[in-house]
Every structure is written in C-alpha cells, then in structure tokens.
Write a structure and sequence with these properties.
With 308 residues, this protein is of the alpha/beta class. It has two domains: 240 residues, P-loop containing nucleotide triphosphate hydrolases (Rossmann fold, 3-Layer(aba) Sandwich); 47 residues, no CATH class. Helix content is 48%, strand content 7%. Helix 2 packs antiparallel against helix 3 and helix 12 packs antiparallel against helix 13. The chain starts with a strand and ends in an 11-residue tail after the last helix.
Length: 308
Amino acid sequence: MSAIVHIGYHKTGTNWFQRHLYPHALSHQYIRRPVVREALLDVGAFAFDPSRAQEILGLESNDAPVLCEEELSGNIHTGGLDGCLSKDIAYRIRAILPHATIVIFVRNQVAMVASAYKQYVREGGTYGLDRYLQPLKYRHNSGFRQAKAPHFTLNHFDYRLLIRHYRQVFGHDQVKVYPFESFVADNEGFARGYAEDLRLEVDWSKVKYAAANEPYRAVTFQLARFLNRFTYRDVADKRHWINVPGLYRKQGKLLRAVNRTPLAGPNIGSEALLGAEWTAAIKERYRASNRQLADELALPLAELGYPV
C-alpha cells in the first residue's frame, strides 16, 4: 500500500474526509492534522529537516500513512503565500514520502471563491467582498507591494498550476485529481469508488455522510461580520475596533446556534453573494486554464458546470 497525501484544496470536503473516512481506514494509518502541521507546516523552509518530519509523523510504522491537511495546498486567505509555500510543500512531501499518492480535489471557481469569502468572515474577517478579493488595490496608497504582506489572490484557484507542479515532482501516475462536485452528487457512491481507486480499505459501518461544516446563512453571516470587529482573531487581513478577550470562541458558539434557527435567514448562493460582475470576471479568469486542465486529465469539468 502506498502512502496517501490529501493536500486539499480548501472548501472541497476535507473536513468530512478527516472526520468520517480516513479515521476508519483499515489498510492505512491516519495521521491527524496537528501532527501533519507540526511535521510539514510549522517550520521554515530553511529549517525543514526530512528526518525530523518522519520522526514526528511516526513513519517507522509498517502501516502506510494517510495525511489529509488542506493547508498543504496553501491557505486560501494568503494564496499559499502567493504560491511560494504551496510550491515548497511538494518538495517537503517528496523528501519524506517519495512514493506517495497525492490527492487533490478541485471545485468550480465561482463556488470556490464565494466559499472562501464566507470562510474569511467565519474566521473573523471584517472586509467587504471587493476589499477581500482585490487587497492590493486597497493597499496601493499605503505602499504595500505584493511581496510585503500575505493576501488573497485569485491565482490560488488556477488549479492547473499546482497540479502540474505536483505531477512534475511526483510523476503523473502518483497524482490523483477529483472534482468536489462528484462527491457532493453522490457521497456514498463516490466515497466507495474513491477508496477503491486508492486501494484504501475502510470499515464502512462506521462512516457517516452528514455534512461536516454548515455555512452561515444570510443573517448569521452579517452578524458575524459585525461581531468580528471586536476580536483580533483569526485572520490577518481585517480591521477590528477593540479586542474583547475570549469573544472569538464564544461568538463562534453563538453564531452556530443562531445558524440552526429560522432567524438565520436563507442560504446565500454563490452568484448572489458575488454579484453579476464578479461572477462574470471569475468565469473569464479561469476559463482557458480549466479547458487545458480538463484536456490534460480527462476531467468532465464542462459537464460539472465549471467555466470552460
């Protein structure tokens, strides 16, 4: 059995895989996220030591490991540090697991960008959509250049770039790419086919198919943006009025409770959140790249609604 390293992307169901599938693997040893982060992410590029990473991960076990951490593809709010971290992580993984199967999930960019902004607000963000999606425009007068501060970038969701990099580093046969929409359409059917594809034996009696994360509805979403102004956590690119100690965790519990009631309002659709102008711009931004990706990997992206 080969090791499996599931690197993301964010907002493609990774929490479900981490909670409900990989822990019930019979053929592989699931290594939990804090351990993966310590081994591969919580160390600078020049300080990374493959031997130390292997020790942290416990790779001396006879069981093939499963790693699943979406931050390995790069944080969505910083674009993987404009791709620098995303690119380097591939070399770190190869240094410790050169024969691993790399798993990458992709998602229609209209839904992906909308979901990223929703996650930004959920994690403490305060800026509006335009400010979040084009931070360099708003930072221009302050003298910030692109390399001086982490920021959101649409480049992060040009999936072809990261996928090509991993295929160059690991070889074409070791990189598996799956559309998130196929998983959403048939959770159980997809999961069983996915496990078979990866030669992952699972105790299916323990697998649950409930959604791991429920997005904030309309009223909860706006309430979150307001409350976020009273805590400095948990995203860097925001503006808060005052930090109330302990509020971040307490408001999370409050907002989740509100979100389960009729007071939360309706769900927010991706195009409704982005608006017609941003929706059109995002579709145009990724159309050519998606066509190339679909051709290179024989993925049915057009059938799944991706801009092509």
